[in-house]
Amino acid sequence: MVLVSVTRLRVRSFRFVLPFIWYALRSTLQAKGSPGNFGVRLRKTKRFAFWTLTLWESDSAMRAFRVAPPHRDAMRKLPYWCDEASYAHWNQDDSVMPSWQEAVKKLSVSGEISKVLYPSPDQKAGRLGTS
Q1: Domains and CATH numbers, the chain
Q2: Residue pLDDT, tens place only, 13-38
């Protein structure tokens, strides 16, 4: 089984976009070099929403990446920088990267909201920002 992780983060102000991108690029390089990582994809959608889609050989491999810098350091800043944050994890049989359409569907069906300090009205209402 392979663990798939999708995240959607919306940066709440243009002033946080450059620092966010700096940490996102560093975290992407970290993920690509992490033991147990099978792939990383990124995308940006409207209104400063940024997505990640990653494949891991196990939950423990993903967790080891998540708690190591620079990703750990980025996660500490996200509650201040983002007004929307959500994620979903699921298992699949193969290491084929899912499409973005499948990732959006999984997030909309089984996604969870992450805490942010300045939530948007959608985040407050429990909407995941997938539409």
Answers
A1: 2-124 (3.30.70.100)
A2: 999 999 999 999 999 999 999 999 99
The CA distances from residue 22 to 2, 19, 64, 67, 106, in Å, are 28, 5, 21, 18, 27
Model pTM? 0.94
Residue 92 CA, distance from chain mean position = 18
> Is residue 39 left, alpha or beta, with left meaning phi > 0 and alpha meaning psi from -120 to 50?
left
Q: Which of 29, 37, 34, 73 is nearest to 54 (CA)?
A: 37
Q: What is the pLDDT of residues 39-69, one digit of tens each?
A: 999 999 999 999 999 999 999 999 999 999 9
Beta-bridge partner residues of 3: 56, 91
The Cα–Cα gap between 69 and 82 comes to 19
3-state helix, strand, coil in the chain (%, to 5): 40, 30, 30
Cβ 50 vs Cβ 42: under 8 Å = yes
User: Beta 2-11 vs 37-45: how paired, if at all?
Assistant: unpaired
